[in-house]
C-alpha cells in the first residue's frame, strides 16, 4: 500500500512514496536539526496513512492535537491522568482500535517520560487477541530515550528507555511499528536507534552527525557535506519501505496545522513608554501570586550524594596510610584491585540487556556495585572504566588479564575508538584461547548493538586499519588473524547465536 510523501528532487515531477505495509513490518527513524521539517514530515505521514492504519502519537509539545478535528483522533491530555490510567488507556485503545494523540504539553521532562512509558507499556502488554497493526509515532524521541543521563531521575530514565526499547526491538511481533524523530542521532540511545531499517535524514550541521547520517545511508564520507545544504522539508530517504538507494525527497503539503507555529515577523513601532504603560509593567504583584512563584525548597540529597560524602570522609583517613605503604605492596594491591573491578563488571554484564545500555548508565551501576562490595566511590573514573569495560566484554578471565600477552592486546586496542575496543579485544581473546572466530551476534553484543550489519562493519573497519585479516573457507566459516599479535582464531560460523 504506497502512500505519497512528496516529490523526488533528483527527478522533478516524480512522486516519492512509502510502502505502508512494509513500514508496518519494519521501523522508521527521522533525523534533522531543529527547523529542518521533522514534525511536518511526521504530520504528512500520519495524514496520508490515517485512513489505512490505527495510530498512536507521543506528542511532547501538543503539536498534533489538530489531527483530531480532521481525522477523528482521540486526544488524551496526560496531565489529567495517572500513570496507571494511561497504561490502561494504552491497552484499551488497541482493543477498540482508536487512533490516539497523547499530549504531554505542560508536563516537566520527568513526568513526560513516566507517562509516555506507561502508555507505551499499555500498548505493548495488550492481550494477543488485540495485536492489530498500530503506527506509533514519537516526536522528539531523544527526550524519551536519551543516550546519557540528564536532570531526570535514573528510575524515570530507565522506565522510559525500557518502553522505547520494547517499541523498537520487540514491538513488531505485537503489531507496533515505531516511527521516531530526533534532532541528533548522538542524543538518542543506541539500542533504540539501531533497530530502525528505514531512514529519512534532514538538514544537519555538526560533522559527527553528518558522518553518522552518511554511514547509515551507505554514502561516502565526502558526500556527508550535502546534509548541510538541505532545505526545510528536504530529506534523504533509504530503506525497504522507501528506496533501495539514497533518494532525495521534498515533503508535500499537509491538511492540518500545528498549534505551535514558527517565528514570524510582525510590524512593531517602538516608542518611549508612557506613564500608564510604565505603571502597568512595573506594578507590584499580588501577595498570593508572589507566594505561588516562590521557589520550592531544594530536595534532600539522594542516596548517591550521601554515599559520596561518606566516601570522602573515609578517604581523608585512608590516604595518609596508603602513602606510607611499600611500593611492592602497592603494586600487588593494584593488581588485586583490577581483578576485583573486572569481577564486578563481569557480574554486571551477566544481565543479557546490560551490553546494550549506554556506557554512562553502566558506569553508574558499576559505582553502586563497587560501594556494595566495599571498594569505595572512586574505584575507577569514567575513562578507566571504559577501558576495563572493553576488557570485560572480551570475556577474558580477570586473573589472565594480568598476563603480558593480554597487555599487548590492550596496548593495541588503546589506539582505537572506545566503542571499537571491545570488538578487537573479543577477537584477541578468542585467538589467544584458540577458540572459533566470534559470530556476528557476539561481535554486535560487544559493540553494544543489536544490528548484525553494524557488527560486520566493525570487522571491515579493523581490517582497513591493518589490524587483522579476515578469511573464509569453503563452508563459509570465518577466521581472523590479528596482525600485530600474530594470533589466529579457529574457524567459526558468522551466523551462530550468542552462547548463553
Automatic annotation (TrEMBL):
The keyword Nucleotide-binding applies. Residues 24-302 form the AAA+ ATPase domain. The keyword NAD does not apply. InterPro entries: AAA+_ATPase (IPR003593), ATPase_Atu1862_pred (IPR014588), HerA-like (IPR008571), HerA_central (IPR002789), P-loop_NTPase (IPR027417). GO terms for molecular function: ATP binding. SMART domains: AAA. Keywords: ATP-binding, Nucleotide-binding. Coiled coil: none annotated. This is ATP-binding protein. It comes from Rhizosaccharibacter radicis.
